[in-house]
Amino acid sequence: MNYDETITWLYSFEKFGIKLGLNRITFICKELGKPQNSYKCVIVGGTNGKGSVCRFLQSILTTSGYKTGVYTSPHIQRFSERFIIDNKEISESDVVLLANKIKPIIEEMNKKNNTPTFFEIVTAMAFLYFKEKKVDYAIVEVGLGGRFDATNIVEPILSLITNITLEHQDILGYKIEDIAFEKAGIIKNKIPVITAAKNSALEIIKKVADEKHISIAIIDNTSWKKTKGGVDWQEFLITGFLREYIVKTSLLGELQGENIALSIAAIEKLQMNGVYITDEAIIEGIEKAVNPGRMEIVSFEPIIILDGAHNIAGISFLKKTLVDDFVYNKLILVLGILSDKNVKEMLEIIAPIGDIIITTKSQNKRATEPTKLKEMLENLNFQNQIVVKNKVNEAVKYALSIAKKDDIICVTGSLFVVGEARDYLVK
Q1: pTM of the full predicted structure?
Q2: Residues near 179 by Cβ (< 8 Å), separated by ≥ 6?
Q3: Does residue 221 sit in the same domain as residue 312?
């Protein structure tokens, strides 16, 4: 297979949807020689902030001289974004090589009516890639939930859980306690756990940790404080377990304070276990870290912000950041949301601050029709202008045509919408 054929082959497994469970991924990795056991691994679960925490950790470890891989999902623009080693995406040739090694295993599974999912195959590719490239550390982001997610066959040295809010309720459960229980599934016997969960979610994590005979470290509002900020940067005072740090980041939104505090706590745990990482490397690593498509400013005059907020918590954080950290004349929202999300609730949160809302949809088959979004906004008594554009590039083009230099264009609601917008803007 060449690269295009490989990508087509991989995406042919999307039709099998989501099938939680560890049997298929365990089988694939056993056939590959258990590559996930070839390096030290940190697993990162939770609701929002997982990607940022992964990027902070990788940046700090890379700055410290350790060869560090990161596996995240979904990608924004390119499939290769899912596999990164020391800030470099996997090459197309390596994608082809990995897929060709895994394909015979998958074909045998097909014959036995035990077909794996797209995510399971890609996860196995990531594990094998990191082994073949001989990384020192792999930072692995949980895909969905935790307990039965394909990433959960790793044997981590640390388990991190960011905040926990309502998401994927049709799969993970309709109560926050149910979702927290699934997220807590990445907790392993006697492996340190650090979390930024709160309230009833935290109580569930504490209970699971107690059953696994470990104490947990908790990141709360006393762990970080925003001290300064500009349009495209912010500074935080982080109170770690070992000392205080003043760190600067280009990642926007106050939630990054929590993400940085969680990341530094993880690094301090490694330091306490004898891993050599300097305080200077922590500060430099935080400053160098990037996370495309998450509160990312891609242009000025007008400011264009891309943020893949795709759940209630994410859109709430976005709203707070836009209100607290930016000054503008008009806010033009380019908005597309997948139909299996809490669409009405997300609109209720973000719509009141929009001066103009351009509804659109990504090419993802789960995307809500833009006309449906318009109808829902009207039912919420949104009084300002609503424009419908059926393609993301058309929506962004229209936003640019009406925006003045002191306006803000914010593309949000879905990582898929953000990815298509980023493609258009880059081109």
Answers
A1: 0.93
A2: 47, 145, 164, 165, 166, 167, 168, 169, 172, 173, 201
A3: no
